[in-house]
């Protein structure tokens, strides 16, 4: 019977009568290869930026017979994850494999069409190959490992580590930690004022669509209600809005309220309870122009010059031409004379406006 290499360490299994005269040498080699199976090995398995296959040699020293294999690469790996196939696909064996390749890429350990185990760059995993031929799979040896509480991790027992582990209801202090809420389902909720240090100096530009500086953002301190409510209260219903150049409805400019044009062609006067003309809001009155009546002009008189030219006077309905100056002061019982100056003025109205300037005014009704 000839020698075979069908075992998991690819050792020489001698048949009856085989290796005559060299049996001892073959046995020693097998013992060395068994020892090799517990060894630490380094192998530049990836000779190029492509998938690679490592085949355990039959009856000869081979790095992939080792227990711990530090996998390196001749070149820098890039692109998709590279696959490391372990052959033959009939070998069922445990490996500790370290991904020490350059390029920062993960590698996937495979044996057949079954499951693979991916090892991140710089990490080591304990894996098992099941050796089931073309459909062989690779398993993570620690994926379902159960640990007892007295196992230590980093100097602390597992029980202590678990007690310190963050839970949904735990109160934990984080130092120099990064929270990533970008992933699906990740979020930070119920962050309250008490949770933020006064010296946190949160910049407003970090807020979505932030357009104000950090200094401006601080002016929001002390606001006691919603900002929109605060803005609405600047112009409560009944307020008057004035603009010297823009006739646009204030709802468009301010973003709130129902507004109507107000006081068109009129000046505004403050309410005065003691004056019946304006003791109530929105009373109207006054005129842009007026024509004075005789009772509205001041009491006055005109001087009459001495006349030397003939005058026409009326005495008892008869016209008499006076050619000489005559004193208008008559004796008792005499006839009274009336003298008039010439007419002047046209009786038109006059501007009744004080100095003014025109603006657009609107009243908020809702």
What does this protein look like?
This protein has helices spanning 23-36, 158-163, 214-218, 227-234, 250-254, and strands at 40-46, 52-55, 68-73, 82-87, 92-99, 107-110, 117-119, 124-130, 138-140, 152-153, 156-157, 240-243, 259-261, 289-290, 311-315, 318-322, 350-351, 360-364. By secondary structure, it is α/β, with parallel strands linked by helices. It has a domain at 38-140. Strands 1-3-5-8-9 form a five-stranded mixed beta sheet, with no helix packed on it. Strands 2-4-6-7 form a four-stranded mixed beta sheet, with no helix packed on it. The longest helix is centred in the N-terminal third of the chain and has 14 residues, at 23-36. Residues 323-331 have low confidence and may be disordered.
Give the topology, please.
Elements: H1 23-36, E1 40-46, E2 52-55, E3 68-73, E4 82-87, E5 92-99, E6 107-110, E7 117-119, E8 124-130, E9 138-140, E10 152-153, E11 156-157, H2 158-163, H3 214-218, H4 227-234, E12 240-243, H5 250-254, E13 259-261, E14 289-290, E15 311-315, E16 318-322, E17 350-351, E18 360-364
Parallel strand pairs: 1-3, 2-4, 3-5, 4-6
Antiparallel strand pairs: 5-8, 6-7, 8-9, 10-11, 12-18, 13-18, 14-17, 15-16
């Amino acid at each position: 019977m000839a020698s075979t290499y069908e075992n998991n360490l690819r050792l020489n299994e001698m048949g009856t009568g085989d290796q005559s005269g060299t049996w001892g040498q073959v046995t020693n080699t097998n013992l060395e290869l068994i020892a090799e199976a517990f060894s630490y090995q380094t192998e530049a398995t990836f000779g190029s930026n492509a998938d690679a296959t490592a085949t355990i040699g039959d009856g000869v020293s081979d790095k992939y017979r080792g227990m711990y294999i530090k996998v390196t690469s001749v070149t820098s790996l890039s692109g998709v994850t590279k696959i490391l196939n372990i052959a033959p696909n009939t070998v069922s064996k445990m490996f500790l494999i370290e991904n020490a390749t350059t390029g920062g890429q993960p590698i996937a350990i495979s044996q057949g069409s079954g499951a693979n185990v991916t090892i991140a760059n710089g990490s080591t995993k304990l894996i098992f190959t099941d050796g089931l031929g073309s459909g062989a799979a690779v398993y993570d040896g620690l994926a379902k490992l159960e640990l007892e509480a007295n196992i230590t991790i980093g100097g602390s027992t597992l029980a202590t580590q678990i007690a310190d582990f963050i839970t949904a209801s735990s109160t934990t202090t984080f130092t120099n930690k990064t929270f990533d809420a970008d992933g699906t389902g990740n979020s930070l909720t119920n962050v309250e004022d008490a949770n933020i240090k006064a010296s946190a100096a949160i910049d407003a530009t970090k807020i979505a669509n932030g357009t104000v500086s950090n200094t401006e953002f601080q002016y929001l301190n002390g606001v006691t209600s919603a900002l929109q409510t605060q803005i609405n209260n600047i112009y409560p219903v009944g307020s008057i809005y004035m603009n010297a150049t823009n006739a646009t409805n204030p709802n468009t400019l301010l973003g709130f309220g129902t507004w109507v044009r107000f006081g068109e062609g009129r000046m505004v006067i403050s309410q005065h309870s003691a004056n019946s003309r304006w003791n109530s809001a929105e009373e109207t009155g006054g005129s842009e122009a007026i024509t004075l009546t005789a009772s509205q002009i001041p009491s006055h008189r005109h001087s009459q010059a001495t006349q030397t030219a003939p005058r026409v006077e009326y005495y008892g309905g008869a016209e008499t031409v006076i050619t000489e100056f005559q004193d208008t002061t008559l004796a008792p019982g005499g006839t009274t004379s009336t003298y008039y100056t010439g007419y002047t003025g046209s009786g038109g109205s006059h501007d009744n406006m004080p100095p003014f300037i025109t603006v657009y005014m609107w009243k908020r009704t809702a």
